[in-house]
């Protein structure tokens, strides 16, 4: 579990950014924050430049083999030579931090595995020393459910592997599905999606991480006029907290008796993660 949090800002007020914007380059600045001790990192890595024809997803996790925190930048290059490169920054690896602290780890192959990042608000999900990202298996729009796979990047070995989604899902027509994604709840990897016509929300759990045949469907509910996203699960009692994207409201679902408890207050939240208090310094 994470003991620190990663903050990402697109800074337009730090001198060189104005010049870089003319050149169609954005600079992303990283901060490390531990709210338990109200401390923010003092030594920052150099800004991460992203060009106009590039798309960025980030992941932040803990490498228990070296006892270090790492940030992975998944950068999709949309030009003629389409590819996704992975760069890695290790917290506390350098003092002072050099300009070339972002290490180029690998490039996801463009053939036969032409991965594409999805335009979703969520970044990579951390679990058991890995960063997990839902991607499209083919370049261009998602035309079928079997295009969607999970890329799991191991922070220890700095290698990746593919994980398939539930077999029942990849057999469904893409026209029936909307708003899909992955999340980490209760120490497991989960996949979710919404049906358009039946207005059903479905939540799958990978019961044994890395074992593709271990997907089980735990939640399937129908709510009129709702488009749901999972936020959190409570073990005692067994409760799933969901966000209704269409109405900016939260609800609690009780799977045992199939009941729903609505919370009408505004909730502009599309993602959530576990946080464990720690005295670790974000340096």
From TrEMBL:
A family per Pfam: FBA_1
Domain F-box associated beta-propeller type: 27-280
Protein origin, superkingdom: Eukaryota
Protein's recorded name: F-box associated beta-propeller type 1 domain-containing protein
Xref: PANTHER family: OS02G0783600 PROTEIN (PTHR31790), PROTEIN, PUTATIVE-RELATED (PTHR31790:SF81)
Family annotation (NCBIfam families): F_box_assoc_1
């Amino acid at each position: 579990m994470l003991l620190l949090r990663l903050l990402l800002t697109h800074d337009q007020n730090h001198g060189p950014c104005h010049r870089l914007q003319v050149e169609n380059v954005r600079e992303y600045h990283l901060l490390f924050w531990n709210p338990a001790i109200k401390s923010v990192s003092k030594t920052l890595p150099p800004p991460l430049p992203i060009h106009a024809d590039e798309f960025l997803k980030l992941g932040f996790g803990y490498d228990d083999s070296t006892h270090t925190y790492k940030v992975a930048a998944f950068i999709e290059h949309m030009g003629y030579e389409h590819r996704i490169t992975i760069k890695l920054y290790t917290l506390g690896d350098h003092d002072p931090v050099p300009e070339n602290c972002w290490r180029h780890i690998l490039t996801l192959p463009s053939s036969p595995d032409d991965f594409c990042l999805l335009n979703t608000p969520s970044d990579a999900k951390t679990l058991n020393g890995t960063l997990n990202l839902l991607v499209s298996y083919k370049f261009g729009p998602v035309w079928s459910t079997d295009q969607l796979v999970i890329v799991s990047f191991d922070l220890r070995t700095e290698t990746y592997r593919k994980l398939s989604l539930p077999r029942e899902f990849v057999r469904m027509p893409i026209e029936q599905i909307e708003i899909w994604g992955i999340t980490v709840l209760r120490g497991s990897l989960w996949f979710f999606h919404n049906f358009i016509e039946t207005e059903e929300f479905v939540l799958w759990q990978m019961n044994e991480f890395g074992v593709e045949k271990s997907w089980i469907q735990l939640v399937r509910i129908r709510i009129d006029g709702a488009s749901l996203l999972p936020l959190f699960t409570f073990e005692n009692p067994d409760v799933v907290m969901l966000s209704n994207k269409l109405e900016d409201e939260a609800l609690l679902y009780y799977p045992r008796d199939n009941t729903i408890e609505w919370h009408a207050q505004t909730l502009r939240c599309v993602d959530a993660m576990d946080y464990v208090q720690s005295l670790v310094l974000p340096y």
